[in-house]
Design brief:
Number of strands: 4
Strand order of the largest sheet: 1-2
Distance between the termini: 26 Å
Number of helices: 6
Shape: globular
Strand content: 5-15%
């Protein structure tokens, strides 16, 4: 099943373009397209837990982006109909990290089955894994770190899943 816009912050083309210029690009290129789509869905599902700055543009939209009132790292308003490249790239990076063997081994996972309706993990657990540092650094300008209900800090356990 092709990746629908409401299933991922990054399209398959955007993720492929991001990885073409990344250190681990050859790993992404070696993954079958269906699996790449599954990984993008899984990464997006994990990213839904973050408390983002601003508010969703449309209350009925399935994902947190696009947003109203979000500001780019250079202080410019992010248009209400756009998802920032940093968010798309973080999704692509997170997707690849979900697929890496060492990432799965860190969890003690023997088999990882990702489907469009979510992620099923088989193996000892359930253990929680921190969001990769590369993903956190891409998102730090877009995640709400203020104190209070639902706030996050990079060391907050909610940066785990």
């Amino acid at each position: 099943m092709a990746l629908a816009p409401e299933e991922s912050y990054a399209t398959l083309a955007e993720a492929t373009a991001y990885h073409a210029n990344s250190f681990m690009g050859s790993e992404w290129a070696g993954i079958e397209q269906v699996r790449q789509e599954q990984l993008l869905r899984g990464a997006t599902m994990k990213m839904r837990a973050f408390k983002w700055k601003g508010t969703p543009t449309d209350a009925s939209q399935p994902l947190a982006w696009p947003r109203t009132g979000a500001i780019s790292p250079n202080g410019a308003d992010i248009p209400d109909d756009e998802t920032p490249a940093d968010v798309k790239n973080a999704c692509a990076e997170f997707a690849l990290r979900l697929n890496t063997e060492s990432y799965s081994e860190d969890l003690g996972i023997k088999d990882l089955d990702m489907r469009s309706d979510g992620v099923s993990v088989f193996g000892p657990g359930p253990e929680r894994r921190e969001v990769p540092a590369e993903v956190i650094s891409m998102l730090e300008n877009y995640v709400d770190y203020t104190e209070g209900e639902g706030s996050l800090t990079p060391r907050d356990p909610r940066w785990s899943y």
